[in-house]
Specification:
By secondary structure, this protein is of the alpha+beta class. The chain has helices spanning 2-29, 119-134; strands at 35-38, 50-53, 65-69, 81-85, 92-95, 100-103, 113-116, 137-138, 141-142, 155-168, 171-178, 181-187, 196-206, 212-224. The chain is built from two helices and 14 strands, in the order αβββββββαβββββββ. The termini are far apart.
């Protein structure tokens, strides 16, 4: 019973806090219709959205969006949006040309948010987005080769030993291995890296047979691999 009353008390406290936030913003930013709390929202309402999120998963992102995240993002987001990463992200909001959604936690479907069209607040959010975007880097996940199987769409960075370099459909394919796990790396240029430890940055794609490949953007040679092993470390 104590647990039940504690849960009810916590829920009531959250509701009161949200109402207080809404009332306070209305008082600061003017007319009541400028801001309201809602859990019924859709990204389709906002064209070319600018999104700041600690984590962005399970939310379809429309084409033309720009996203700055601190942590993880769905791989499918890369097909529709320009995604960058910034460890300084501490807020969650979606900004359009004349409206915005501000979240008290992670951006998720059905999550309570403050919907606003207040000019002052929109300018502040735009300034914060520009600050984070300017200081951000292209999104890339640092993963081991063993973690890449079955994935696609992500920009990744990984290391391995080049076992072989072979022609592949008017390009070249590097067989990259680490501790017995192997992945193919596509590149436009033939390079003398066989037997070397390399660091690869690129986008995960699927081959016609369904295997994960890395379509490389950069291949950096680190050192000559130790004899008789494919282990990076």
């Amino acid at each position: 019973m104590d647990v039940l009353w504690f849960s009810i008390g916590t829920l009531v406290g959250i509701v009161i806090a949200l109402v207080a936030v809404e009332f306070g913003l209305k008082k600061v930013f003017g007319k009541q219709e400028h801001s309201k709390l809602t859990s019924v929202w859709s990204l389709s309402e906002i064209s070319d959205p600018l999104i700041v999120a600690e984590k962005l998963e399970g939310v379809p992102v429309p084409a033309g969006a720009k996203v700055v995240v601190r942590d993880a993002v769905d791989a499918r987001t890369f097909s529709s949006a320009e995604v960058r990463k910034n460890p300084e992200v501490r807020s969650n909001f979606i900004l359009g040309k004349n409206r915005a959604l501000i979240f008290t936690g992670q951006i998720e479907p059905g999550k309570m948010a403050l919907w606003t069209v207040d000019d002052i607040l929109l300018r502040r959010l735009n300034s914060e987005f520009n600050r984070l975007w300017t200081k951000s880097d292209g999104y890339v996940e640092h993963l081991k080769i063993a973690e890449l199987a079955g994935k696609s769409g992500l920009r990744v960075k990984t290391e391995g030993v080049v076992l072989d370099v072979i022609p592949y459909r008017e390009r070249f394919l590097l067989r990259l291995s680490d501790h017995g796990h192997t992945i193919g790396v596509l590149t436009d240029k033939e390079s003398d890296v066989k037997g070397s430890v390399v660091r690869v940055t690129g986008k995960l794609v699927k081959s016609d047979s369904g295997y994960s490949l890395i379509d490389s953007e950069e291949i950096d040679k680190i050192r000559i691999a130790d004899a008789g092993t494919d282990a990076v470390q």
